[in-house]
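User: Continuing from earlier, I have the next pair ready.

Assistant: Great, send them over.

User: Here they are, in order.

Assistant: Folding the first of the pair now:
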Amino acid sequence: MAQGHARASDLALCLNLDFLPVEPPRQPVARVLRALPRCGEMVACLSIIVGGLGLIGLASVL
């Protein structure tokens, strides 16, 4: 986060801008960050289910 602010400050100086970069609101970002672990768990569950279905299908063909 600090590197992004430093880069934005450098760009503002190069472009002769006289305002500071504004931070994005933290609440929407926090919601996304809280949802990421849940998404990882859902992907793991779905991969186990789909893998199991594939193995059952393979076993039924044999």
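And the other member of the pair:
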Amino acid sequence: MTVETRENTETGSSFQWCAWHQGYTRTARPVRDPADQGSGAGAPSLYACAPCRYALDLVPLGEQS
């Protein structure tokens, strides 16, 4: 059973690929790859799902300071 939360309904029905668990998800958000921290502002972003962001302490790009 899936519980609807703000986290998993924000993107509607679109699926994105989570680069960390290598699967499609509706909770993916763009995050900067921690391996590219020194690459500057032009570094490409990857998508991570809610469980991977939580487990790996990844911050979505819109929430980074």
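Worth noting for the second one:
The CA atoms of residues 32 and 45 lie 5 Å apart. The longest strand covers residues 29-32.
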